Amino acid sequence: MMEQIRRISFSDDFRNEVQETVAREVEADPERFIERFKALPQSLGGRFVSADTFKETFEQYVGSKESRNLFNTPVHNAAAVLASEQFRWLLAETPQAGRNEVVLLTGRRARVKRQWCCGKKNGRRMFMPFTKGNWLTR
After folding, report:
1. What distance in Å separates the CA atoms of residue 78 and residue 120, rounded to the nearest whole number?
2. What average pLDDT is seen over the chain?
């Protein structure tokens, strides 16, 4: 069962309404948002689980730079619950050959975590930050 989406109170009705609309849509049909997420190239088919990337599945959020700034916090809890749900689903799946590891990237700055990418070097799976060198074998 999916976690409950926590609502917070904003000083304006507009952000409260967006939060409630998104939360109700996610609660009614989380699979719709998970399928949208898996279709995003940056989700690597749903294997790169990120609350920030889940925000890209909300129409209210992706409309413009202004809507991203205005609705980042109102949609965050719904996105975090979806990310948690996707992570649980991934762990429940039978691992595919060569895909039996989990790498957790944590930290305060989302931008830094998004700068990591997956790839291969010499036939080995690697994780590399977008800086010169610094290949880390996983």
Report:
1. 33
2. 81
Give this prediction's pTM. 0.78
- Same domain for 79 and 18: yes
The verdict on 136 and 76 lying in the same domain is no
pLDDT at 118: 52
* Listed residue (35, 41, 16) closest to 85, CA to CA: 35
Query: Is the distance from CB of 57 to CB of 33 less than 8 angstroms?
Result: yes
CA atoms within 13 A on the CB side of 120: 5
Residue with token string 């996610």: 26
Do residues 75 and 137 both lie within one domain? no
Burial of 25 (0-12, 13-18, 19+ CB in 10 A): middle
